[in-house]
Write a structure and sequence with these properties.
Elements lengths: L4 H4 L1 H5 L2 E2 L3 H28 L5 H29 L1 E4 L3 E6 L5 E6 L3 E7 L2 H6 L2 E7 L3 E7 L1 H11 L5
Antiparallel strand pairs: 1-2, 2-3, 3-4, 5-6, 6-7
Helix pairs in contact: 3-4
Length: 162
């Protein structure tokens, strides 16, 4: 008997699609922005609340923030991109993700209550969209996807081309 992700849904795993290459760039820019905000916050915190001890802890915290940001940028984001796959079937959406712990989500279309398409400024710059899918039990974000994938997803979910 086959084990692992492939055993869960053989049809989906043989037809998995990759996210667009721009997804990696969006994640890299978001990571850099979060790292920069963390550094600024640390500098403000240590510079205004604890100005007399700012040099020691600030350097340590800055080194940790920079290390985590670089680890995310150089190792985790490329692995995340490599292992994030999806399949839009006539009866379900299958999403496989996770670089360390693999997770497969199978979302039957009959359980979907709504499909919401989102596009913030950064996604718009790259021509990408995020899709929020809601059921009676939960909701989750998928993507980022290109416009043609979003249209396929909406048609499959029965959301039409409104």
């Amino acid at each position: 008997m086959e084990s692992g992700i492939a055993a869960w849904d053989e049809q989906a795993t043989t037809n998995l699609e990759s996210l667009p290459r721009q997804a990696k760039a969006v994640w890299q820019i978001t990571n850099a922005a979060i790292g920069l905000c963390a550094l600024v916050l640390c500098a403000l915190l240590f510079g205004t609340i604890l100005p007399e001890t700012a040099s020691g802890p600030l350097g340590i915290v800055a080194a940790v923030v920079i290390s985590v940001t670089l680890l995310e940028a150089l190792v985790l984001i490329p692995r995340r991109y490599r292992f994030h796959r999806f399949f839009i079937g006539p009866d379900r959406l299958v999403s496989v993700r996770g670089s360390v712990v693999r997770r497969m989500r199978i979302q039957p279309w009959r359980h979907v209550l709504f499909v919401e398409v989102r596009q913030g400024l950064l996604l718009r710059m790259f021509g990408l969209f995020r899709v929020r899918i809601g059921t009676i039990a939960d909701e989750h974000l998928e993507g980022p996807f290109t416009a043609d994938v979003v249209q396929r997803l909406r048609r499959a979910a029965g959301a039409g081309d409104e």
